[in-house]
Amino acid sequence: MSLPKFVVPVSPLKGESLAGLVARAACENLITSPAHVFSHLGMPTARLGSVATRHAAYCNDLAYLIGTMAEELRPLFYKRTDRQVAGLGAEVNFFGTHLALRCRESKIRRLSPASLRVSAHHRAAWELRFLHWCPESLQYLLSHCPSCGKSFGWEKLAGIHICEHCGADVREQEAEYVAERDKATAHLLSDLVLNRDETANIRASLHEDLRQLVDADLLCLTLMLASGFEWSPKILHNALYDINRASAPSLEMWRVGFERIRNWPESACELVWKQLETPKEDAGYGMIEELGPVAAHLMPVNADLAKTLRKMVDDSYLRKGVIALRPIGGSAEWHRPGWLPSSEAKKKYKLTDWTIDQALRSPEVRRISHERGERSPTLLHEADLLQWVDKLKEALDVPTAMQRIGIPEHALWELLEFGHLKFLTTEIRILTPRKGFIEASSVKDLGNALLDRCAPMPSDNENLVPLSEAVERSRSPVSPWTTAIIAILKGKLNVWRREAPSSAYVDALLVRPDQFEAEVGGKIVLPEFREAPLLMTYNDAAALLRTSPDAIVQLTRAQKIDSENGGPGRRAVRRSVYSYAMAHLGSIKPMQSKSGPAEMDSRAETMPQRT
Known about the structure:
Blueprint: H1 18-28, H2 34-41, H3 51-54, H4 59-66, H5 70-73, E1 79-80, E2 91-94, E3 97-100, H6 113-118, H7 183-194, H8 196-204, H9 215-226, H10 233-240, H11 251-262, H12 266-275, H13 279-282, H14 304-319, E4 323-324, E5 334-335, E6 339-341, H15 342-348, H16 353-361, E7 367-368, E8 379-381, H17 382-394, E9 396-397, H18 398-405, H19 409-418, E10 437-438, H20 440-452, E11 454-455, E12 465-466, H21 467-473, H22 481-489, E13 495-497, E14 509-511, H23 513-521, E15 535-537, H24 538-545, H25 549-557, E16 571-573, H26 574-582
């Protein structure tokens, strides 16, 4: 069976698209519907704009139909050049340029009135979504008819230059031109994808790491750099394929991108380090997600552009003196000098596991850690660690701190909860209630603050008594040590310093009994316990409630105070002791600590008297 042939033959013009050629041939032979062209060849019905990418097998038949040589027609078909990398999508060879298939606009026919006045044929360059102007005239393309407002398409064939809806001649219309300041950028972008000789010159001027990238990757990289890596891959691709000039990247943005790509990799390194200025990221360590916005572009790992970006990041880290650790999974980890993995810090400074564990808990030691499982190392800031270890060597245990200040154990924990003392380490609260190292400087600062409140010794000092004696004489049902110290620090309770030397800070303090009772007696403050041990000894509970240890045993047996193991054990539950204490303070409410509101019982029980 012989194939049909058009009466009026046509041949491709320079730069003409396949869809435009078929449309021009159909118009010359008075055919108004693409379906009629397809039916002559037995081709499946398709959008005319998609023939170049889907029906290369019909090249010979189509060439015979329109009256041209197959060798002239074959370059107008776009060969698929997919790289078989997940996430990249379909790609085509666009006249020697490697582009994503989505870069082509196959549904809407875009036109330049000025170029149509020179020659009424459809240019292949008009199919590229990211080119919003005609490379010949530098006139912005029209996708809608200025007369009727409807979009140009390929559904009907009335001539390339004719609106198929209203019949208006587009050549008689006017459109905006590229501004003078943007013409150089427009020519550069057009040449990059359309002029292979200029493309070779452009590639030769690029850094060697970029020369092997395909054109699609170069376009993406240009917009990445122009946006400072702020755009996600999805936003980046949508911008590259955006046919709407109002929302698409401007020529000014392309200019910035081209300037930065010429200055590769310095420009990219500068952007990466600019994103890593926040304290956590400034540590320069972490899984790949810690790198900032550039991290989103480092996947998939086997993509050419992702490999180039990874090399840039790695090189930029090395320039800054960054050490690369072993890769974990598919990601890499980096850190700067001055940061040590906890295991290396332990060996280097001969520290115990307990010391490293305490350093990791301390807010004074900067650390970087990841919830990635046990294989992810934790880094410690070396200078912070050494400074903290020096403090640990001088730190005081609970009994020593009690002795230096001159207060019972319960008062020490209360002052810690209120923030007047500072913990350097913490222990498992329920198992080691008396252990814990207190920062020596915080004990010294508290003592100096108390002594600084002392007034000169008056000539009449007969009414002055030691602070410890005033606490002992107080009628308060609960030990007022903490309340008295806080009142002194706030300047509400006057104190004087005794002349004789003393071994503890509070032993040097003198008060007036009447003023003490007025300021402290009915103003007991108790904190909520966040850091203090869950349990307290019977002796400490007795000191708080101003009774005897035997009385505490009786209270635990009567289940008025909870104890270890639910019975009269070796230690009492701290919260229950304080709840019992608060129940005997009447309407006085506990003062909230910095950790949060207090939770106390409202039970009213009879306080056992000291025996």
